[in-house]
Amino acid sequence: MKIESVKAVKIKDSNGNDAIEIIINNKHRGSAPSGTSTGKHEVMAYPSKGVNQSINFVNKILNKQLQKTNFETFEDLEELENELFEYDTTPNISKIGGNTIIALEYALLKGMFGRNHIYKGLSKSWKVPMPLGNIIGGGAHAKDSCDIQEFLLLPKAKSFSKAMNANRIAHEKIGNILKTKKDQENAWKIKASTEQILDLLTQVCEEVKDQTGVKISLGMDVAANSLYKSRRYYYKKFSRGHNAFSLSTKEQIEWINSLMERYNLSYVEDPLHEEDFRGFGELHEKAMVCGDDLICTNLDRLKKAKGKINAVIVKPNQIGSLIETKKVIDYAFKNKITPILSHRAGETLDTTISHLAVAWKVPIVKFGIDGEFREAKLNEIARIEHSIVKK
């Protein structure tokens, strides 16, 4: 594909915040999401002056630089990134913004391979993942809800579509029980203790299994950074029978381990703050112990976490580079760490990440369950699955 024009415009993400969309040759559009709960080791989504600064860079500088340039393969993105990082030498891409690069690269992939066939252009063999979805939300995503940022469902089914359907049924059942509002990721809000919520979810998952035959295991994204202050983890009061309390690091580890045992949790994300590599290594390995803020899709930090975690969240805009994103996934596979491609709280309708998951054979995707911006990515994987199965 030869570049004739590169244009950037402002759009709104799922939280109503400004985001950048980049259009290649007046046809191929790419956009990147932004996080609400962010790790301090992430690159800057946008420069200090916001999206407008990124848009000006694309329209006034990048458009001229890229005209007549050819892009044919994924590997061609490496030369592009090298040039961009010569322009922006800051350690956190604060001059350009990581989202600008990811949106550009998403648009380029669509131009090279076609919007519906990116996975085919990236690989000759594919694997469809399983969906990890958040059903009840709290923490930074819903401050008037529970302590834990996300309670998650991980179904095991013969197809992605059946697993996705099981999650949706569970989501609807919880909504009918709670009759409450949703958070910014369309998970349900509830003021209740962690144990009360896990008891409720256990009951609902049994009902879904009876209805669909699909077994669903439970998980949590603790997002422990939001709970951590003065070397302790602080939890709120929800009722007369559940007072506020705080835990030391040792007590936090013991509590998380006890929840894994009691509820047979299959997944626990960020159970400790983002610098506690040692503490991560003291958690049970019976579940996936996953680092998000701990790693921030940074290869150096993932190498440091080797032997401490057995799963890692991968978010391309955390590192501002698809080349680096692929390196993180490859390293994870080589070291028996499960990579999980994830959405962000402030999403766009771009579905390129669904193609990355299938092409790079990522076993699990964390794209949510409900809502237009989440379902766009889930439905794209279901469409790809149908296309693959037909063959």
Question: What features would you describe in this structure?
Answer:
- The protein is an alpha/beta fold and 391 residues long.
- The protein folds into two domains: 6-116, Enolase-like, N-terminal domain (Enolase-like, domain 1), CATH 3.30.390.10; 130-390, Alpha-Beta Barrel (TIM Barrel), CATH 3.20.20.120.
- 40% of the residues lie in helices and 17% in strands.
- The chain contains 13 helices and 15 strands.
- Helix 5 (160-178) packs across helix 6 and helix 12 (352-359) packs across helix 13.
- The longest helix has 19 residues, at 160-178.
- The mean pLDDT is 96.
Short description:
This protein has 391 residues and is α/β, with parallel strands linked by helices. Helix content is 40%, strand content 17%.
